[in-house]
Design goal:
single chain, alpha+beta, six-stranded mixed β-sheet, 5 helices, 36% strand, disordered N terminus
Length: 261
């Protein structure tokens, strides 16, 4: 019995060891946000141009929106895995809904393997489609734990967008309110809107006022954001990257530091 008890204790310790590190150390990471527009339709659904950008900027995480999975539109391709293989990253796909024989949703690419992945789907009366937000837990080479989430918020009304943010908050923080977290993607709301004001009750906007993100050919408003929790993040670089040949959204690149103390 003592041997069995010892084995169980060691197994439990192994499972919770990563959790014991959460939030205990400073974090330095590079992230990107990429709304690729209708399954990469601007680039004929090819993966190589996006993979090349990722390789050029070498982020730790890429949060993507409007990703097709084996649809008629993209020729039945597993686009995310193609990009993952070409860029040397680990993929996590979050299907929002079935579309053209496949799926449409959000995704995350991580330079490091993740030990936990979750998603939530927002479905509400008045929205034209369900929308998935997903997140991964990663232990960085430093030993610090970070949670990175991708989102694509509803756009029909400000009220629905705000409700969507509330739903995402409830899901992300249902079991864990301590891990340093980033929420990245297309919020479908401008900085002075009620949804963003509501989001900033919980989240810290990274580099506010740094620039517009849509349309990519001449951006006149900001819809794409990097948000951090808790409000202990700083940044050394925040760049808007226009690639009008690849999307209607500019991409976003940020070098971030989480200050644990």
């Amino acid at each position: 019995m003592r041997t069995i008890g010892k084995k169980l204790w060691l197994a439990a310790l192994f499972c919770i060891a990563p959790l014991l590190k959460m939030g205990a150390q400073d974090i330095s990471i590079r992230v990107m946000s990429m709304n690729i527009k209708e399954g990469a339709s601007y680039a004929d659904n090819e993966s190589e141009p996006y993979a090349q950008i990722i390789k050029d900027y070498d982020p730790d995480f890429v949060c993507l929106q409007e990703v097709d999975y084996k649809t008629i539109r993209n020729g039945g391709r597993d686009w995310l895995n193609e990009v993952a293989i070409k860029s040397g990253m680990f993929p996590y796909y979050c299907k929002s809904f079935t579309y053209q024989g496949g799926g449409f949703g959000t995704a995350i690419l991580s330079k490091y393997p993740f030990f936990k992945a979750q998603k939530t789907i927002f479905s509400a009366s008045g929205t034209r489609e369900d929308r998935a937000s997903g997140w991964v837990y990663v232990e960085l080479p430093s030993g610090a734990i970070v949670r990175v989430a991708t989102t694509h918020l509803s756009l029909e009304t400000a009220d629905l967008t705000t409700k969507h943010i509330a739903s995402v908050n409830s899901a992300i923080f249902a079991e864990d309110t301590t891990t340093p977290t980033l929420l990245i993607g297309d919020f479908n709301a401008t900085p002075d809107s009620d949804p963003i004001k509501y989001a900033k009750i919980k989240w810290q906007e990274i580099a506010p006022g740094s620039g517009n993100t849509i349309p990519s050919s001449g951006p006149n408003r900001q819809l794409d954001y990097v948000m951090g929790f808790p409000k202990q993040w700083s940044w050394t670089r925040y760049e808007i990257l226009p690639y009008p040949e690849l999307s209607d959204h500019c991409f976003v690149l940020a070098d971030l530091v989480f200050n644990a103390n």
